[in-house]
Amino acid sequence: MNPSQTTNNQSDTESIWKALADPTRRKLMDLVRESPKTTGELVDEFDSIGRCAVMKHLSILENASLILPRKEGKYRWNYINAIPLQEIYERWVKKYEAQWATNLLQLKELAEHKSNIHQKTEDMIMEQEAKTIKILLEIPIKAEINQVWECLLKEIHLWWRKDFYTSSKTKKFIIEPKIGGRMYEDYGNDEGLLWATVIGLDGPNSIELKGHLSPQFGGPAMSFLKLSLKENGHSTVLTLSDTTFGAVSENTKKELTEGWKMIYEDGFKKYVEKKVA
Q1: Where in the chain are all domains bearing CATH 1.10.10.10?
Q2: E strands, the chain, where?
Q3: Which of 185, 176, 207, 212 minimizes the C-alpha distance to 196?
Q4: Nearest-CA neighbor of 80 among 21, 123, 30?
């Protein structure tokens, strides 16, 4: 081993000891050890210190390679990496505990290919648990199709239920009516939460969106939402079609159905009919 390699190993070990010295970081490790967590889920566990402090702790753990982040759509997933801990064990503990039996070193080879190990793990989980749920709602609205379309996209911030906001920072809800446009919560200052992306637009007839359902709301899963409008005399029928694929259950379907009814049958329908009355 050359001197530079020895220096690097010492630096890596010091960063690990430093990362583990803080009780908050040890708790973060415990949470991620139970199962991969999104950054938002981890922030929710530490109301007393705030998001910035949690992000700083995560950065220190990431620099020490104890937590491996992975960006999936609008979410940042955090995974435990046991290899550095195992290497410390091999260096400092094993020679004093000859009877210690472990299989963790078998992960070392896989860890060297960490760019795809998490994807393989997720694929295995999806194969075991992936399901498809479909929701179909038809909502008659006493208004002309162009009026409904205008309210649906350009006035969504006026009728979208605030109790469906995911953050107290949300100022308004927005759909950008264009291909590639965003459906998102706007926090201001270029911050917010992306719900979905517009993948199809045919005004005033339909809009299609592709989004993700986080574990916090019944996933992880991928969703495809289509809102279609059809004239029916002096009224318009809004058809909502939601197809969700992933780690979902019948309870997820029930909760999504109730949620869409509250948003579109209650919030949107009443807003449009009151406006045009």
Answers
A1: 3-127
A2: 37-38, 67-72, 75-80, 131-141, 172-175, 182-188, 191-202, 206-213, 221-232, 235-246
A3: 212
A4: 30
Length of the chain equals 277
Question: Does pTM surpass 0.70?
Answer: no
C-alpha span between 53 and 128 (Å, rounded): 36
pLDDT tens digits along 169-199: 999 999 999 999 999 999 999 999 999 999 9
Range list for CATH 3.30.530.20 in the chain: 130-276
- What's the token pair of residue 270? 């009443």
Report whether 195 contacts 221 (CB < 8 A): no
In words, the CATH class of domain 3-127 is mainly alpha
Better-scored residue on pLDDT, 177 or 248 = 177
Distance of alpha carbon 250 from alpha carbon 258, whole angstroms: 12
Give the residue from 227, 263, 256, 229 showing the smallest Cα distance to 134: 256
Residue 2, both tokens: 């050359």
Tell me the per-residue pLDDT of 49-93, one tens digit each, with 9 for 90 and over. 888 999 999 999 998 888 888 888 888 899 888 787 777 766 665
Question: What CATH code would you report for 130-276?
Answer: 3.30.530.20
Question: Is 40 exposed, middle or buried (CB count within 10 Å of its CB: 0-12, 13-18, 19+)?
Answer: middle
